[in-house]
Amino acid sequence: MNPTLPTAGRVLVDSLRLHGVDRVFCVPGESYLEVLDALYDAADDIELIVAKHEGGAANMAEADGKLTGRPGICMVTRGPGATHASTGVHTAQQDSTPMILFVGQIARGDVGRDVFQEVDYVAMFGKLAKWVVEITDPSRTAEIVARAFHVAVSGRPGPVVIALPEDVLVAPSQVPACKSTALDAPAASTETAMRLRTLLADAERPLVMVGGSGWSPASAESLARFAADWNLPVACTFRRQDVVDNRLPQYVGHLSLGMNPALADMVRRADLILALGTRITDIATDGYTLLEAPRPTQTLIHIHVEAAEIGRVFQPDMGIELPAPAAVAMLAALPPPERPAWNDWTASARDAFVRFGVPPQRSPDATGVDLGQAMQALRAALPDDAIVTNGAGNYAVWLHRFFEYRATRTELAPTCGAMGYGLPAAVAAALRHRDREVVCVAGDGCFLMYPQELATAAQYGAKLIVLVVNNGMYGTIRMHQEKHYPHRISGTRLQGPDYVALAKSFGAFAERVDATDQFAAALERARRHDGLALLELVTDPKQITPALRLGEPQA
Predict the structure, then answer these.
(1) Alpha helix segments (H runs only) across 96-140
(2) Could you tell me which CATH number the domain at 8-169 has?
(3) pLDDT at 555
(4) d(CA 56, CA 497)
(5) I want to staple 389 with a disulfide (CB 3.0 to 4.6 A). Which of 23, 41, 94, 412 is the partner?
(6) Is residue 553 pLDDT above 60, yes or no?
(7) Superfamily for the 190-355 domain
(8) Which fold is adopted by the domain 360-538?
């Protein structure tokens, strides 16, 4: 041991500082005490946020990565800590979010003995993360951490997992911290741009499909300018609605669960689809039914940062490997045709989107809060830069259909469909942007995945509002249950706590809202509260989607 050299644990923290990390989300563990001690000395530069569950910590880090475009950092202990955090890694993988998970590990000499909390992390995370590595040489810590930052943000962004044997962390490292080298952004050739322009200008019924990660306010502005100059209809893929200001005349909707039938028909009838920044997934294509695989009948132009994603399912007529910012810069520079053939096509699609955004008339026997009206009230009350988070469940259909996203990086929602995401994501957003309003919309089942993160919000002074949509069931599963096994309710009833009392126990402002006309005033009181707030919205359990009630024939 050389006391004059820093330990590997301290080189790791030095590496975080070099890469501009200012916040780490964690649940502490004895397996990485050396790193925790080094973070004590780095407290002026790196804030340590202690979550109450490793799943919550991982979701917070993933959300932070979405908001900043830099890797969100999470640290957990070995064994159960890692398995709990795996949900956040899966979300980062499917959502293309840069993230690094550091996991404590057993000592090198005990590997293979099935000792306390031993897990082979390369095997466990091998299909979930972009790269999984275990540091076995303390002097390679700087090299591996620098590579992790590069891998997390290069190509299609995603999660990296680094295992930290406890004996490595306390050993001296011969190599000091170093920083990864940023890559120069690529650009499309003039020939490529002109070929794309020709295909686009020759179309009669084009549709731009946008999504994916890596969008900044500048790139979103370029996209809006391109869409306006060409008067092209633009639809966002699942839970990427904040890529485009939904108020733009060219915005035509959300390729999502609960998709507007008119938008689905538009995809089928389009003669050209420009897929920009997004993977072309099952949800965006309604289970691969809106496009034919492997060769769509529509002319397909697919622009994506990762070559492996182009042609994964659908073979395009033109594939371009470019990140979204470079792609929209190219598109915004293309001269539009004088009289686009699709002006009426765009106007009709926009009109269908606007009509779909009006909440349907309620059933005469409906009870509780009309969630469609509540989402419209939320939309009217919040400023353009408010951040809205959610997890998974049927309640989210109301949010995605009736809310309006107006600015980039204001929607935090898992495309992987993970329940419980909304509250941890809201905590991360409120800490990252203390000057902005943050609202989490969560079903009762979704909220109960990580309700303990109210304690994290309270501990660190995160100002946010939680809307708990309470219908006393796991609504999505009940919907499928009624379709396939009608009148045989099994496992989908949900008995929750007194949500108001629970929130107040953490010092939050809290109210129960039983009727639609109570919501706007309750929301205003929650917004005026300087701290954590929760509103329980009691909704009709029969209203399983905006258009479907239990016990009534399905369309």
Answers:
(1) 121-125
(2) 3.40.50.970
(3) 44
(4) 20
(5) 412
(6) no
(7) TPP-binding domain (3.40.50.1220)
(8) Rossmann fold (3.40.50)
